[in-house]
Amino acid sequence: MDLQLQILHKIKEYDTIIIHRHMRPDPDALGSQMGLKHLLQRHFPQKTILAPGYDEPSLTWLAHMDTVEDSNYEGALVIVCDTANTARIDDKRYEKGDFLIKIDHHPNDDAYGDLLWVDTNASSTSEMIAHFAFTHDLDLDDYTAKLLYAGIIGDTGRFLYPATTAKTLEIASKLRNYPFDFAGLARKMDSFSFPIAKLQGYVYDHLEMDENGVARVILTQELLKENGLTDADTAAIVSAPGKIDQVELWGIFVEQESAHYRVRLRSKFVPINEVAKKHDGGGHPLASGANAYSKEEVDQIYQELQYLVKNKEN
Ligand code: AMP
Fold first, then answer.
1. Which of 16, 141, 242, 251 could join 216 in a cystine, given CB atoms 3.0 to 4.6 angstroms apart?
2. Predicted local distance difference test score (pLDDT) of residue 1
3. Residue 154: CB within 6 Å of ligand 1?
């Protein structure tokens, strides 16, 4: 049976459905999780549909999370959206359900779950959820369309990243037909606070770049605290170095309170996810995340990135 139909059958079979997503949610994680929740709530109003996880302050304008009790997991169907590996699933109780489904668009390095729908050709998990809805004639309400649209524009950088396909645009066009506040959403996703603007200035001022266009910047806790910023706020400036035409590939190393560094890696052409995997991370070929547990490891990752570009085949 077709994978999506199998998922639909499982959804019909269970009275309680709990939908998870990854830690440190971005608009696609939240959009796919909450979009699926509201889609299912609309079509199966008699079921209990819950979405647990950390209420990320910078995204509460888009959605709020549910409070989920341990007892809700008894005999429940659990669906995890947009999360490649179990270590990154927000709320470890995902294991406590009766049946586990993974829906994701990252490389399937950690093939967890009883049923897996992984489509690395999809721009975003929100695109997959919207495709699921349209394929099975499950109509949406305006809010669901807005959540899924936000997820797609978040993960495609407003249709600029290469993962944007004709299908992405087709699905986005269908979502755009719903009368949610499109202008408000576009403004919200295209603006940032003054401290973040200053952080962007810092990134451009302090960017280190080699002769092959491999760039990096280190954002210390001191810098973030001085500007009243959090780790989550750095999402707004991750793409900034890539706007420089000479930059091919870049890393943003964000010092954490625990003194280790969260590493955000991006590339225009050369795949970087193998470097990410070597350093407690993973992700897409051109957009990955990792961790560095010392300043030496920060330097080592930068050297490995430099090596990648130096030795790339033309
Ligand atoms: P970010 O820089 O956090 O926006 O992450 C870029 C991509 O890498 C996303 O698709 C994440 O899912 C993935 N990613 C980030 N951090 C990790 C990690 N520690 N392990 C695996 N994948 C990650």
1. 251
2. 78
3. no
